[in-house]
Specification:
Layout lengths: L7 H9 L7 H11 L5 H33 L4 E5 L2 H5 L3 H12 L14 E5 L3 H18 L14
Parallel strand pairs: 1-2
Helix pairs in contact: 1-3, 3-5
Length: 157
C-alpha cells in the first residue's frame, strides 16, 4: 500500500461494515484486493482504525456546520451534504449528528425519532445546487454595489 489507492475509502467503508465477529469479510477483502493475509489482531486494528477515521471525519464536518451555525446565529436549519462519504460510509450521519449535539450542547432528546435543531441531510446534485447558490449570492452582492472579489467588475455595469 505504498502507492496511493483511490479505492482506499472503499476498503475503509467495507472494513467498518463487516458484520462478522471474526471479520471474515475484511480478511477476504484484503486478500483479494491487496494480496495481504492479515492476522486476527491486525483485522481488529484495521476495523478500529476504519471506525476512528470515519468518526473523525464526521466530527470534523460537524465542526464546520456548528461554527457556521453559531457565526450566523442559526438556531435551526437543514444543511445539505453531498458526496459518497456522507451517503455511504457506515454510521457517518449518526456520528455527525452526535458531534453536533455535543458541540452545540443540546439537551438529550426525549424522543429518539425527533429532529435535531440543526440537521445534516443528503443533498442530491449538491454541486449544481451549490454553484447556483454561489451565483445568486454573487449577483446579489454586485447589485448592492459590492464588487470585492469580482474578477471583471466591468462586465457587471
Amino acid at each position: 500500500m505504498s502507492a496511493p489507492d483511490q479505492r482506499l475509502w472503499q476498503l475503509l467503508t467495507d472494513s467498518s461494515s463487516d458484520p462478522f465477529e471474526n471479520l471474515s469479510e475484511t480478511a477476504e477483502l484484503f486478500q483479494n484486493r491487496l494480496g495481504i493475509h492479515p492476522s486476527s489482531s491486525e483485522l481488529e486494528l484495521i476495523r478500529r482504525t476504519a471506525e476512528l477515521i470515519g468518526t473523525r471525519a464526521a466530527r470534523l464536518s460537524a465542526c464546520g456546520v456548528a461554527a457556521i451555525s453559531r457565526k450566523k446565529g442559526y438556531d435551526t436549519c437543514h444543511v445539505g451534504a453531498d458526496g459518497s462519504v456522507f451517503n455511504k460510509y457506515p454510521h457517518f450521519k449518526a456520528r455527525g449528528a452526535l458531534a453536533l449535539r455535543e458541540i452545540l450542547d443540546w439537551p438529550e432528546k426525549g424522543d429518539p425519532s425527533a429532529e435535531d435543531p440543526i440537521e445534516i441531510l443528503a443533498a442530491e446534485d449538491g454541486s449544481g445546487v451549490g454553484a447556483a447558490l454561489i451565483a445568486a449570492l454573487t449577483l446579489e452582492r454586485v447589485q448592492a454595489g459590492n464588487m470585492h472579489g469580482i474578477l471583471h467588475p466591468e462586465n457587471f455595469k
